[in-house]
Every structure is written in structure tokens, then in C-alpha cells.
Amino acid sequence: MKMATLLKDLFSPGESLSAVWPQRRIDWCILGFCLLGSVIVGITVLALANISITELADPGHLFEVATSSAVVGSLLLTFGAGFNAVLLLILFGTPLAYVLARSQPSRTKEMVESIVDIPLILPHTVAGLLVYLLFMRRGWLGAPLSEVGIAFEDAYPGTVVAMLFVASPFYINTMREGFLKVPVHLENVARTLGATRFQTFSQVTLPLSFRHMYNGALLAWGRAIGEFAGVIMIAYYPFIVSTLIYYAFTTDGIRTSRSIAFTVIIVSFVVFLLLRRLTRYVGRYDDRV
User: Fold this and answer.
1) Of the candidates 102, 97, 96, 283, which has an alpha carbon nearest to the alpha carbon of residue 186?
2) In angstroms, what CA-CA distances link 285 with 115, 127, 186, 278?
3) 3-state class of 51 per DSSP?
4) 249 φ, ψ to 5°?
5) What percentage of the chain reaches a pLDDT higher than 90?
6) What's the predicted TM-score (pTM) here?
7) 240 burial level (CB within 10 Å; 0-12, 13-18, 19+)
8) Is the pLDDT of residue 207 over 70?
9) Can you list the alpha helix ranges (DSSP code H) found in the chain?
10) pLDDT confidence of 109, banded at 50, 70, 90?
């Protein structure tokens, strides 16, 4: 009786409890998607937790390995080689992506797109073997370039070209999708106002695709610095970080290689976190087209 009187005092006539405190409906679809997706995230988190707990239990050894000249030099070499590979991809891959985006469907286009995707489907050792056969001292490209002083076997150019080969589909396909999102009628308007094809590309299409260029370059760089089998086929030396981990595992055992791997994880995570944050500001107006 007292409860009924209290509710009568709280609510005005005609006002229900659900109107005052609206119930939040559970979106079971989103909840199910979150649960399914959490399996992928959970596996990665468990793997990171496993190595983190082990390494942080011996911080002295971890600090000694992480600050050694071999690890620091290998990290700089890996990131630098990946950066150079991405620069070459921007130079040569951007025009190719534009042509693929603007050309009409044909067998030739399908053939070229399939060739671009080949590094995606090949085992990494096969990709490395292809690069080695082409750029070795007696290879079709390696022989003439070695005569002008550019060597690829066990040399820095070999590392770059192997990274470029395996990372090329990531950049070209992303860039092609970016060009496809730019309406063709904007290019036509620029052409009717007197702009040449290159002026239209450089002043209209490319700026509107800059966000895709950044994301494609980021994906390609990540793929490049993570390559192992493709690189060691042509350039076992100098040590990139994945080669250094393998070398440490076969010579010093799992303890040292695990510390190097943990250092790489931390550095890569921080670098990619910062680069991902920049995507909020890079070409954010492109999506309005």
C-alpha cells in the first residue's frame, strides 16, 4: 500500500515508468559480432601477454639485448629498407594504380591485375627465389646492374628489392581503390577547363586520393619490414631484424631471440600506433567526394 502511494507521488498522471527511465535495448547482432571478433583479438592478446610476462620477469637481460648495437642497428636497417621500398612503390606503383583504375575492363587489365597480385599468393620462399634469380649476379637484371656497381646479393639493395616485391600488392591495390573513389566527372571538368591529363592527375585526382596513398604506404611498409624468407634468399646479410632473430635462435637459443622479438614488438607497436593516429588528419576531407 505504501509502495503504491509512493509511485503515485513520483509520477504525474499518464506518465509511465518506462517514459522516465527508458530501457536500453540490446543489439544482439552487434553483441554477437563483438564476441566473434574478440576471438581474434584474444589470441593476439594472449600471445603478447605470454611473451611480455616472460620478458618482464628479467628486465636486466631484456635491457641488455634491446640496447645492443646489433639490435639497434638491425631495427634501423629494417625500418630504413622498408621506407625505401615504399618510396619506390609510390614512384612506380602510383601510375600503375591510376591506369588500372581508369582503364576499361578487358583481358589485358585482368592479366595485369593478376600479375600484381602474384606476390600475395606465393609462398615467401618462392617470392624470394624469384627475386634472387632476377637480381643475382648472373640474373637478367642483376648482371647489367652489377656492371655499373649495384650489387644485390648479400647487400642492402637486395633487401630493398625483396621488400618491394612482397609489399607491392598492398600499395597498388589500395591506391587503385582510392582512385576509383574519385568521380571521373571531376577529372572531366578539369579537362574541359584546359588542364592536361597530368595536371588533372596531380592537382585533382592525387590530392583526393592522398588518404588511400597514406594507408597503402603504411600497409606496404608493415608488410615489408615483416618479411623474412623473401629477403634471406637474396640478402642474408646485412641482418634485418627478422634475420637477426632467426640467427640468435639458432646460435644463442630462445632466450636472446625472444628478447629481440619482444623489443621489435614494442617498437613496432609504438611506431604503428603513432602512424595510425595520423590517419585522423591525413586527407580526412577526401571522403566527402
Assistant:
1) 102
2) 33, 38, 15, 14
3) helix
4) -65, -40
5) 76
6) 0.83
7) buried
8) yes
9) 2-10, 17-20, 28-56, 59-66, 69-102, 107-121, 124-135, 142-147, 156-180, 184-192, 197-200, 206-208, 210-225, 229-232, 241-251, 254-278
10) very high
- CA–CA separation, 261 vs 66, rounded Å? 9
**Cell matching residue 143:** 648482371
Cell 571522403 identifies what position? 287
Percentage of the chain lying above the pLDDT 70 cut: 89
Cα 30 vs. chain centroid, distance in angstroms?
27
CA R_g for the chain: 27
Which CB contacts under 8 angstroms, 24+ apart, belong to 112-116?
Answer: 116/168, 116/169, 116/172, 116/173
- Site of grid cell 633487401: 159
Residue position matching grid coordinates 644463442: 252
User: Cα–Cα distance between 142 and 230 in angstroms, integer?
Assistant: 16
Cell of 197: 591529363
Tell me how far CA of residue 28 lies from CA of 31, 33, 35, 98, 284, in angstroms. 5, 9, 10, 42, 32
Residue whose C-alpha cell reads 509520477 in the numeric block = 11
Q: Which pairs count as long-range contacts for 123-130, CB under 8 Å and 24+ apart, including other chains?
A: 123/229, 124/166, 124/227, 124/228, 124/229, 124/230, 125/229, 125/230, 125/233, 127/162, 127/165, 127/166, 127/229, 127/230, 128/162, 128/229, 128/230, 128/231, 128/232, 128/233, 128/234, 129/233, 130/165
From the number of C-beta atoms within 10 Å of its C-beta (0-12, 13-18, 19+), residue 118 rates as: middle
pLDDT in tens, 41-79: 999 999 999 999 999 999 999 999 999 999 999 999 999
